[in-house]
Specification:
The complex is a heterodimer of chains A (about 110) and B (about 120). Chain A is mostly beta strands and about 110 residues long. Chain A contains no helices and 11 strands. In chain B, strands 2, 4, 5, 9, 10 and 11 form a 6-stranded mixed beta sheet that branches. Classes of the chains: A mainly beta (about 110), B mainly beta (about 120). Chains A and B meet through strand 4, strand 5 and strand 9 of A and strand 5, strand 9 and strand 10 of B.
């Protein structure tokens, strides 16, 4: 049974560019959450998607947006990249209403 | 509002010694509490969680934690450290009223194990 799959694993972008990160949830899960983990810090909640809608959002600017598809997979988009966006981006899937998150291995984004 | 404080960004123990990683939380609602472990260049793996019931929670790899409401603490312990326990450990809190909602993480504690 595959867990949470994220792609790509590593990515280098230039300031001002746009990036799309992808996540496939664990089989049976219908909810996807995204977290940003800066170097040496704990993960910070970006937003959560359920039924193709954003259900919760953390303290992140509108440059961060997302999408969930009918098959429950999700994308995280970041526009106008800043150096400070360099981080490990983690996707976590769960079943709505149940506390049980499965995290992916993350996408390491470097902005130069 | 919820928050998590992990005391000590780095803890070093000898192999076979007791591991104690400290976590204090703040929550205006009954909390769900979690400990995750992160190995280099990997995602987060759940060690254990407290939701309801018994306040002493046993997890994987010999770890356990005790929920102490009066002290707002959820410290992680392991009686005997192993070299493979070296990793980053994160304590997290979520609200019972928001099942499946966001996790609030602490800053993390890096555990080193000396031979």
């Amino acid at each position: 049974d595959a867990g949470v799959t994220q792609s790509p694993t590593h990515l280098i972008k230039t300031r001002g560019q746009q990036v799309t990160l992808r996540c496939s949830p664990k089989s049976g899960h219908d909810t996807v959450s995204w977290y940003q983990q800066a170097l040496g810090q704990g993960p910070q909640f970006i937003f959560q998607y359920y039924e193709e809608e954003e259900r919760q959002r953390g303290n992140f600017p509108d440059r961060f947006s997302g999408h969930q598809f009918p098959n429950y997979s999700s994308e995280l988009n970041v526009n106008a990249l800043l150096l400070g966006d360099s981080a490990l981006y983690l996707c976590a899937s769960s079943l709505q209403g149940v506390h049980g998150y499965t995290f992916g291995s993350g996408t390491r984004l470097t902005v130069v | 509002a919820q928050s998590v404080t992990q005391l000590g960004s780095h803890v070093s123990v000898s192999e076979g010694a007791l591991v104690l990683l400290r976590c204090n939380y703040s929550s205006s609602v009954p909390p769900y509490l979690f400990w995750y472990v992160q190995y280099p260049n990997q995602g987060l793996q759940l060690l254990l969680k407290y939701t309801t019931g018994a306040t002493l929670v046993k997890g994987i790899n010999g770890f356990e934690a005790e929920f102490k409401k009066s002290e707002t603490s959820f410290h992680l312990t392991k009686p005997s450290a192993h070299m493979s326990d070296a990793a980053e450990y994160f304590c997290a809190v979520s609200g019972k009223e928001n099942q499946g909602g966001k996790l609030i993480f602490g800053q993390g504690t890096e555990l080193s194990v000396k031979p």
